[in-house]
Design brief:
Layout: H1 22-50, H2 63-68, H3 72-79, E1 83-88, H4 93-104, E2 112-115, E3 135-143, E4 147-148, H5 153-161, E5 170-177, H6 186-197, E6 201-202, E7 207-210, H7 215-234, E8 248-252, E9 285-294, E10 303-309, E11 322-325, H8 331-340, E12 348-353, E13 368-369, H9 370-377, H10 386-392, H11 399-409, H12 413-425, H13 430-436, H14 444-450, E14 457-460, E15 471-477, E16 480-482, E17 488-490, H15 492-499, E18 511-517, E19 531-534, H16 541-555, E20 563-569, H17 572-575, H18 579-587, E21 593-598, H19 608-614, H20 616-625, E22 629-635, H21 639-654, H22 659-671, E23 675-680
Parallel strand pairs: 1-2, 1-3, 3-5, 5-6, 5-7, 19-20, 19-22, 20-21, 22-23
Antiparallel strand pairs: 3-4, 8-12, 9-10, 9-18, 10-15, 11-14, 11-18, 12-13, 16-17
GO molecular function, one term: flavin adenine dinucleotide binding
Enzyme class: oxidoreductase
Transmembrane segments: 20-39
């Protein structure tokens, strides 16, 4: 904000005749006033342009292009297209699915385009009826506690608050969710229903993909029936033409100057050398690793306590937030791909979208080397989806390899089983596929086009900014496991973090790109409110921050409410993380009660859920009689579900309610943010 200074003019009364007339004074005041406003207006405009929030532009887009791209209707009309596929994506899967649908549209004489709702004026949906045989398809993920993804938030709010007449809009919706979470596909279901309420016509029933099972199978099955419905609705037939057309073309960049080549930056060239606030998903902060220590006392597993230095970054976080960490693939896997495909990984290249109207000019920052693309931009460790199997067929010189790929790419029961067994169950990634099907030698640029983007990894922050304003702590288990084919798969992020050990000498400290993601997982506004925290294993992470914050308040002389923690691990002498800290909080009164479950320290396994059932009176006293808050962090698949069932049971018994009343009571707790979960599957 600009600070304006006023100028006070004093006049002195004299008996002599003034040297300057009243008219002169008036003219002088007018001139000063005009000059004053001109100067400060100019200064203010200059300042506002300097202090305007910094926005990251895609490497290939100008601001003029972005403005013109906001009207997807104009783009559809000018290019003779009738199909637009919008995506709401947090990890890239929905965007990938949208691309596959748009590509297949050509087989049904529906030229398609993929669109990011964040970059579009979604009010233009009312004009879709002006395009003959047009259709909008939405591939949207549900994220967090039933929230839309970041790029779909504005569209979601537009649907909620608007009353546009969408009569004449033909649509279909596919949702991406996870059944282990309570708000399964909530956003997709809402969009599907709301579009119908606004007058749009549903061409095909909603598809609900479950990432806890086989979302690829869910999508492929839905997509096949989608096209059947499309053909029926529009009275068209499949052309039979294959849609294996390259979306990107290879551009030789051997003459590009080194300073114009990306080397791992997420969006802006040289962004790690010239850091600019604010930091976000497209502009992460390159943080130094200040601390990296082992938390397990013994055993063959590893759990790391890591502290990211954010001093001087202007980054701020709240207790309960998440930190995103940008990993890179191991050089061993990257080199293996180069060897298998006999490729020079240091070749500089670019992939340019063949669709000149697309706002996405490149699949990842270009130009770069193949080594950079495979290290920083592409996911080479996850299980490839069926469309990649299909694209690899043409590169197989051995008929047996070709037939195997054809089978896995098909939607027959036999094909689905083979894909499930050979890819999913045996946990093969692209490197394993190229090793086990040795005649398959895809062009490396095509492979780079096909592979999904490498995504950042999110961790619950295990510190409080009140105590650690200049650092962010995380608690991470090192991921290593043996697959059915006797290969060792390693977690991309945790294995990288394990190598980043700070040094005590003058050598540069290890760094890694991060940014903060806001969360709804929050302590009650009043420090006196009692809380129960249930966090076995690394589920303890956010509660370490909660306890630190309450301890800080206690030391300031403020009254704090009861804090009850349920923690569990395998063995007390092996993986009881932060043991000394927790015992100290019990001793000083910050932590009222610490309930511990060591599952393998006795013949019969004991888990936190067993302790929770045993302490039904304490549980009801806090959540029922004292209006306290309850928090759960950890495994969504079993632990969080079991906790929820126990809570309902306790509310029924201690609150003397029916099952229906207890469910409503717990639901109300969730709505009031008195029952919060930070879980993963």
């Amino acid at each position: 904000m600009e600070n304006s200074e006023g100028v006070k003019i004093e006049s002195t009364v004299v008996t002599e005749e003034p040297l300057i007339s009243a008219l002169d004074i008036a003219l002088f005041v007018v001139i000063i006033t005009v000059a004053y406003f001109w100067y400060f207006k100019r200064d203010k405009q200059s300042s506002s342009s300097e202090k305007k929030p910094y926005t990251i532009q895609p490497s290939s887009l100008s601001s003029i292009e972005q403005t013109s791209n906001s009207s997807f209707i104009k783009k559809l009309k000018s290019t003779g297209r009738s199909l637009v596929v919008f995506y709401g994506s947090q990890t890239g899967t929905a965007e990938e699915f949208a691309g596959r649908i748009a590509k297949e549209g050509a087989r049904y004489k529906m030229k398609g385009m993929v669109a990011d709702p964040e970059e579009c004026d979604m009010a233009d949906l009312v004009e879709m009826k002006e395009i003959q045989k047009s259709m909008a398809i939405f591939c949207v993920a549900t994220y967090g506690e039933g929230d839309p993804t970041d790029n779909a938030m504005d569209f979601y709010e537009w649907l909620q608050n608007g009353d546009a007449d969408l009569e004449g809009l033909n649509y279909a919706v596919f949702g991406l969710g996870n059944k282990t979470y309570e708000h399964y596909n909530e956003i997709a279901i809402y969009i599907d229903q709301r579009l119908e309420e606004l007058g749009a016509t549903r061409v095909h029933e909603i598809g609900l993909g479950d990432d806890d099972a086989n979302i690829e199978d869910d999508f492929v099955s839905w997509k096949e029936k989608l096209w059947e419905s499309v053909c029926s609705h529009y009275g068209i037939e499949e052309t039979g033409e294959e849609s294996n057309i390259r979306q990107y073309k290879l551009v030789d960049c051997s003459e590009i100057l080194p300073e114009r080549i990306f080397s791992g930056e997420i969006s802006r060239l040289k962004s790690y050398e010239n850091q600019r606030f604010p930091f976000d998903v497209k502009n992460p902060y390159l943080s130094k690793i200040a601390v990296n220590r082992e938390l397990h006392k013994s055993g063959d597993r590893s759990c790391m306590h890591i502290e990211f230095d954010i001093d001087g970054s202007k980054m701020r976080y709240d207790t309960g937030d998440h930190v995103a960490v940008y990993p890179k693939n191991s050089s061993e896997l990257v080199e293996k791909i180069g060897e298998l495909l006999n490729a020079d990984l240091d070749t500089v290249f670019s992939l340019l979208n063949t669709d000149e109207e697309s706002s996405k000019k490149h699949p990842f920052p270009c130009p770069c080397t193949y080594r950079t693309a495979l290290t920083y931009y592409l996911d080479i460790t996850s299980n490839p989806r069926t469309h990649i199997m299909k694209e690899l067929i043409e590169y197989a010189s051995d008929p047996k390899d070709q037939e195997k790929l054809k089978l896995m790419a098909s939607s027959t029961p036999e094909g689905k089983k083979e894909f499930h067994d050979w890819i999913l169950r045996d946990n093969r990634n692209i490197v394993h596929i190229l090793e086990d099907l040795p005649s398959v030698k895809p062009d490396l640029d095509h492979l780079c086009e096909l592979l999904p983007r490498l995504q950042c990894r999110y961790y619950s922050i295990s510190s409080s900014p009140k105590v650690y304003p200049k650092s962010i702590h995380i608690t991470a288990v090192l991921v290593n496991y043996t697959t059915p084919t006797n290969r060792v798969n390693k977690g991309v992020a945790t294995n990288l973090l394990a190598q980043l050990k700070p040094t005590n000498d003058e050598l540069p400290q290890p760094t890694i790109p991060i940014y903060i993601r806001r969360s709804q997982f929050r302590l009650p506004p009043k420090s006196q409110t009692p809380i129960i925290m249930i966090g076995p294993g690394t589920g303890l992470a956010p509660f370490r921050g909660f306890i630190q914050e309450r301890d800080y308040a206690r030391k300031e002389g403020r009254e704090i409410g009861e804090m009850v923690l349920y923690f569990g691990c395998r063995k007390k002498d092996e993986d009881f993380i932060y043991e000394n800290e927790l015992q100290e909080y019990v001793a000083n009164g910050t932590l009222t009660k610490l309930h511990l479950a060591f599952s393998r320290d006795q013949p019969e396994k004991i888990y936190v859920t067993h302790l929770l059932e045993q302490n039904a009176d304490e549980l009801w006293n806090i959540i029922g009689e004292k209006n306290g808050h309850l928090y759960v962090c950890g495994d969504a698949r079993s632990m969080a579900k079991d906790v929820h069932n126990i809570i309902v049971k306790v509310v029924m018994e201690k609150g003397q309610m029916t099952n229906s009343q207890a469910l409503n009571y717990v639901k109300k707790m969730e709505q009031q943010k008195r029952y919060s979960a930070d879980v993963w599957s």
